[in-house]
């Protein structure tokens, strides 16, 4: 089921984190290549400046990415041509005042942008705060606002949550061990705060996502030892259930038909669980594996698919958590799996993409593809192509690329 997030976008556009449905599914009837390499099945392959983990957002004829040049201390929006891969513009949003310390696997450009078909909204952590910058579709800055503090003290790992467009608002979370930790709803025209709901003063990284549960759209998110739901229009807490663990990074998924929502993580606890979207919102089932800390789960036809932190692929039956199969592949993993045409695509940090059938009957590997040396960003599937951000390391130098995989 596709939710309406109030986006003025094309049918096969990918306007924000996890796509138009919020479930990381390509459009119905879409296809994608199964095999590729540096020498095979690339429509184009463009070097991109700097370093970032944001996923490609694709609207109209443009592709939008963020990046950071750590030497120049700039955080920028990149605009590329969808057909040719040409880098059209690079607009600097911030210069200087980068966080003095982040996790070695994180970047200063990890949140994915959101696009409403008219403007692009980028979230950067800069000067101990979360800033939203609004750009037009050509990459020209419209406004920039300091929205909320972000100054963690205990774990200085950087930022990761992405902004989401829902009901005409831009929503994002900033959770840390200090005053201002919470979820924010921002007016997309003015950049002014519409609502703010406080969250526990403890570090977590998950993106709130609009899910259709109990007949209504609600923002659900994990982390800080709870599964919580909020009204996207007002920020009012709808319900909250003990579960999860302190820190999670993955975005929740949901099953509208069965009124279930699912989460996985985290630190220090390891869990995957299902919570009921109606009634008392009790935990239906919970188990210690798989543990998907940075990456999100994938729900297809009532079954959960995951490539866990340790590189083991899982299929769980959503209604009761029964393990349908497990298969050792390879980790570690940061990028989230996507679903295209009956298949799951998921890439590990060493830039190997595994393609396997989205079937509970048993594990069936379709292909294993290697492109580059490093991958943290989740791939975007549109146009019968895969838009794939990766990096190559040679002689101590690192170069990022955006590739269009497919004809």
Automatic annotation (TrEMBL):
Lineage: Eukaryota, Sar, Alveolata, Dinophyceae, Suessiales
Region (Disordered) location: 13-33
SUPFAM superfamilies cross-referenced by the UniProt entry: Quinoprotein alcohol dehydrogenase-like
Residue ranges of domain Pyrrolo-quinoline quinone repeat in the record: 138-251, 300-351
InterPro entries, sorted: PQQ_b-propeller_rpt, PQQ_rpt_dom, Quinoprotein_ADH-like_sf, WD40/YVTN_repeat-like_dom_sf
Name the UniProt record assigns to this protein: Dehydrogenase
Pfam family name, one: PQQ_2
Superkingdom of this protein's organism: Eukaryota
Signal peptide: none
């Amino acid at each position: 089921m596709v939710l309406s997030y109030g986006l003025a976008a094309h049918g096969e556009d990918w306007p924000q984190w996890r796509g138009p449905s919020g479930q990381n599914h390509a459009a119905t009837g879409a296809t994608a290549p199964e095999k590729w390499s540096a020498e095979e099945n690339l429509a184009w392959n463009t070097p991109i400046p700097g370093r970032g983990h944001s996923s490609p957002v694709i609207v109209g004829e443009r592709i939008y990415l963020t990046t950071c040049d750590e030497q120049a201390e700039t955080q920028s929006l990149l605009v590329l041509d969808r057909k040719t891969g040409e880098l059209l513009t690079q607009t600097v949003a911030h210069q200087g005042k980068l966080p003095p310390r982040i996790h070695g696997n994180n970047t200063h450009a990890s949140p994915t942008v959101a696009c409403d078909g008219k403007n692009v909204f980028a979230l950067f952590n800069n000067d101990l705060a979360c800033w939203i910058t609004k750009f037009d579709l050509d990459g020209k800055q419209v406004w920039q606002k300091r929205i909320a503090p972000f100054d963690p003290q205990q774990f200085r790992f950087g930022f990761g949550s992405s902004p989401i467009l829902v009901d005409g608002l831009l929503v994002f979370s900033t959770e840390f061990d200090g005053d201002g930790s919470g979820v924010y709803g921002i007016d997309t025209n003015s950049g002014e705060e519409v609502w703010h709901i406080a969250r526990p003063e403890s570090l977590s990284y998950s993106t709130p996502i609009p899910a259709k549960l109990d007949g209504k759209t609600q923002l659900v998110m994990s982390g800080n030892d709870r599964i919580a739901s909020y009204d996207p229009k007002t920020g009012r807490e709808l319900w909250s259930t003990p579960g999860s663990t302190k820190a999670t990074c993955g975005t929740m998924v949901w099953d509208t038909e069965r009124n279930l929502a699912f989460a996985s993580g985290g630190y220090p606890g390891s869990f995957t669980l299902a919570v009921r979207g109606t009634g008392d919102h009790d935990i239906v089932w919970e188990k210690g594996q798989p543990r998907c800390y940075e990456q999100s789960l994938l729900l297809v036809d009532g079954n959960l698919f995951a490539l866990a932190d340790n590189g083991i692929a899982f299929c769980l039956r959503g209604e009761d958590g029964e393990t349908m199969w497990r298969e050792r592949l390879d980790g570690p993993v940061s990028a989230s799996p996507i679903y295209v045409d009956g298949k799951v695509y998921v890439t590990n940090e060493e830039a190997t993409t595994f393609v396997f059938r989205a079937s509970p009957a048993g594990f069936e590997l379709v292909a294993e593809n290697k492109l580059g040396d490093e991958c943290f960003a989740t791939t975007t599937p549109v146009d019968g192509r895969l838009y794939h951000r990766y990096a190559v390391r040679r002689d101590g130098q690192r170069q990022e690329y955006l590739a269009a995989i497919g004809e």
